[in-house]
Amino acid sequence: MTDFLDDIRTSYDTVASSYADLVRDPAPGEPECLDLFASLAVAGPVLDAGCGPGRLAGHLHARGLQVIGIDLSPGMIEIARRDHPDLDFRVGSMTALDLPDSSVGGVVAWWSIIHLPRDVVPQAFAEFHRVLAPGGVLLAGFHVGEESTHKTSGYGGHPMNVHVHRWTAAALTDLAVAAGFTPYPDPVISDDRVCFRK
What we know:
The strands form 2 sheets. The chain has a 7-stranded mixed beta sheet with strand order 3-2-1-4-5-9-8, sandwiched between helices. A two-stranded antiparallel ribbon has the order 6-7. It is an alpha/beta fold. The longest helix is centred in the N-terminal third of the chain and has 21 residues. It starts with a helix and ends with a strand. The chain has one domain: Rossmann fold (3-Layer(aba) Sandwich), CATH 3.40.50. β8 and β9 form a beta hairpin. α1 runs parallel beside α4.
């Protein structure tokens, strides 16, 4: 597991500044998804898993949520702390979250599972389930499809070495249910966003 995590970490350290500049604006439909998430999360902080430069965490905080942002990339976390100094950002992996059981009221994985090998995503979902309080909600965004590609550059042309794994909502729903989640109430918000309840 160390090799692919190291590749993700190094790649996003390399592109951190350019990435932060390129993703400042909300994606289509994103505000509505975050409103839904804010309305469904139960009491306590929420987790932005794979938070990058903290943009989404900032939007969640603006909706009145206490947010913990976790990312593999120290470079991303440095930018997140710079841009959102009042929020809690930590270097860490969604495959082994340094959080107590049942300690967060919601988890957002916003296009952050896409670099995990397919056989590792169930481990991340199990961690999300572990740290969620009863009734807590998981919101996940992803690239749609079934193929995987090797990304060697991006975000300003900087070198990268990550794989991008596309998913279908049905496949992710199967993994979520296997991890103990319940679809809420129809898990498919759109083709590339799904929502579940613990």
